[in-house]
Amino acid sequence: MKKVFKLEDEKKHPDRVLEAIKHEVRKYIKREKRKTLPEGVDFWKFECKSAIDDEEVKEIDFLEITKAIDEASIKKAKTLYLEIIATNGYKEKKENNEETETE
Q: How large is the average pLDDT for residues 87-98?
């Protein structure tokens, strides 16, 4: 999902615009998580980027998506760019370093 959201709408209250954006993002994430995983993949990992108005695009953590939307609202921005790409996620294998200490 690569999309530029308009945060100002003459016909809607600003809070309703923010809620609509958050709803669309959540709906997209749920849709992507429902897709079947390729063989050997453990989970869907989301790579996210954000930019307010014409600022440079910066990478954000998946858990910070709603914070980025709220931050744009606080700054009274006109547009918000969000990029959320689902990629393959793999669990890190834990190495069993069983070192026995002799006392």
A: 80
DSSP symbols for 31-51: HHHHSPPPTT--EEEEEEEEE
At residue 16, does pLDDT exceed 80?
yes
Beta-sheet strands, E only, within 1-103: 2-6, 43-52, 58-60, 79-89
Cβ neighbours of residue 6 closer than 8 Å, sequence gap 6 or more:
17, 78, 79
**Contact partners, residue 3, CB within 8 Å, separation at least 6:** 81, 82, 83
Cα 58 to chain center, whole Å? Answer: 12
Cα distances (angstroms) measured from residue 3 to each of 6, 81, 82, 87, 95: 10, 6, 6, 18, 40
For residues 50-64, average pLDDT? 94
**How confident is the model over 12-34, as a mean pLDDT?**
96
Contact present, 50 and 80 (Cβ < 8 Å): yes
